[in-house]
Predict the 3D structure of the following.
Amino acid sequence: MTDSKTARKKHVPGEMSHRQILQALTGLLAALFTAMLSTTIVANALPTIMADLHGTQTDFAWVVTAALLANAVSTPIWGKLADLFNKKLLVQLSIVIFVAGSVLAGFAHSMELLLTARVIQGLGMGGLTALAQAIIGSIIPPRERGRYSGYMGAVMAVATAGGPLLGGFIVDSPLGWRWTFFLCVPLAVVALFLLQVTLHLQHVRRPAKIDWLGSILLTAGVSLLLIWVSFAGKPDYYEWWSWETAAMVGGSVILLALLVLVESKVAEPIIPLKIISQRTTALAIVASVAVGIAMFGSTTFLGQYFQLARGFTPTEAGLLMLPMIAGNLLGSVGSGLLITRFGKWKRFLIIGTVLVILGTALAGFINHETDMILVSLFIFILGVGMGLLMQNLVLAVQNTVKVSDVGSASASVAFFRTVGGAIGVSVLGAVLSSSVSRRVTEELDKAGMPTDGGGTTATLDLGGLPAEVQMFFRIAYAEGTADIFKIAAAVAIIALVAVLFIKEKALRRTLDIKPTSSNPVEPGLAGGAEILHTGAMSAVEPAIVPGSGSPVASESVPRTDGTEKAGTARP
């Protein structure tokens, strides 16, 4: 009787070896590192940037939201392009776009130009987000994907950890905040070179039909909703209940309804309804939106809390983010290794969601005098939860689709998570801004100091204010940050409910789906029992020798059309 562990290690024709996969991932992870670093390196620089460019709390939120929004709306487009065109060329193109945005941001002399540059950066990051997941899904079977997702999680954690620290150091140095954008340019050039040398993907041409109408409706509908959220309730704009609100919300609903109609009719939808309507994908999307709101919405303002509420320098704020990053690293790498070893993944989603709820709920009690050891513990718990959730939600979805749809499926999950993040940053940023203005106004009125109706109470430049007034702001920012953590905890409960209803399915040991009597394929996913080469080297599901329970390699029987189908078991 063949030992099952030995059989699993046998090379299956068509599969890439561990060494080949690592070589292919080198440039990809370098590109992902550059994009992640560019996102996090600016975090602790934002208060300084806002002071230099005379930005408000709303501008602060939109510097983050603009990149997230562009990332979100472009991710499904990149994902669809990944299913139609050469993934290697697309990921290189996304890096070039990202570099262009970084250079423009470095030269920005106004908030308008900075926001434009952030949009361009977001377009490039959307490509890297979608294509990294799609390429991994194209070359690695789900059963082994946990290990490599762990590598990706480690790279993301290092970039996230090093970014705020490096950004704080650059801001405090003679280089100034502009180099937080310029520094990523040479790193991106190195990533381009590595991708050219190490990433080799087989591409099968397919008829290319891009759903441009769907892309326009998606962008317009989501953008209109986020613009409404960002400015509603502000003194200089419009009330929550107003004709502007009715027009913008109504318009967004109409645009998104038209999007659903268009996606149900076109041949190559930008958001494939047949995939996102599946139970696992739909629930993973709900969880991703909630996690995105909780994760992006709460953590975006941590650097601001450390600097404005606690008075730390940008460098010190970067160091204080390390516990959350360490937790993220532990959660992502640890769960990836355990999933690869044992094949169970749902338990990590449940534990991760519970930890996100716990971490955000605890952080909801911080103030301007909370012991920093407690703050570090709270964000460490949050980091572990995020590490357990991020990659594993994508893994759960990729396990249910055939390899030709893995780009769209991965991009759909990433899209909704990023939309959730953009909504979270926008909504929670608005909540924080209103909270700070209200609290500061109340304190100034009690102290007999008149305000200008919102201008003074919206400032992020505390350096020029009297010491007494600075303390009002520090207390207000601390209490406002606690408020948004409480909201994030409430939203994360939705993610827990969604995760509990996800049905765990055994992870495939093959790249593509092969239906069997014991493991039927969900309707609309596989479309047949044959395993086709679809842009990657596909492997065949191991057959089971009767009476042994041990998987062995299957013969590959050539077909006249150039594809292969599973043959008889070879003892």
